[in-house]
Amino acid sequence: MPELPEVETTVRGLARYLDGARLARVELRRADLRRPFPVDLVQVLTGATVTGLGRRAKYGLIQTDRGQTMVFHLGMSGRWRIEPEELGPHDHLILETTSGHVLALCDPRRFGSVDLVPTDALDQWPRFAAMGPEPVGDGLTARHLKTALAGRSAAIKLMLLDQRIVAGLGNIYVCEALFRAGIAPLKPAGRVSGAALDRLVPAIKAVIAEAIAAGGSTLRDFAQPDGQLGYFSKQFDVYDRTGQPCTRCGSAVARFAQGGRSTWHCPRCQK
Q1: Is residue 3 annotated as a catalytic residue, yes or no?
Q2: Is the pTM of this model over 0.85?
């Protein structure tokens, strides 16, 4: 699933073609993805000018001069294609600007979503209202985590995946951040020390920043809008490295199932 760095990379790629552009054509090539497309999507977007692009957690935001923001989620396999040579069977939403640029939202598994939300009410939109701070913003601090995790017996890894604790963190980058901070993924969240949280916050921020700079992580389906792959996967310390030597101590990286996902860690370095 595309995570925060992949969505941020996608939004930056779209901005080169959409920011300030007027949408001349909006075409829906099916009725739904994970959920039905908004019934007024074509009417609202056709002729609108894009006034800005952004991101909240794993959602991309395309703001317009009509007071409406198109909020998209890439689901498991979604990506935007810029100037496709021809449209394919999985290109479900087409945007064309007055300058002739064509952008296609491609989602083979159709686990993504598209919504229209009033721009001035984005923070109150139910999917955003309960979210915690962004991992790359000033709101994520050791003090925030200490308060949010106090008394929690659930594993620290699972708590970091809870969007109410931190918005936008996913499996890849939680595994990598916990490794950098030297914290065992099974450790009860409420028992993680203040010193460990002091290590964890900069580790989260650094992992996310490095992944964005590398264009995200291409594992199976993800590619940037221009077709380029993400290369942070070349820098993984533990994720998807079962049995390979730890980059610090040389011990074998271990994998186990946790909360319905795979977790990778170094049993020696993470306590």
Answers
A1: yes
A2: yes
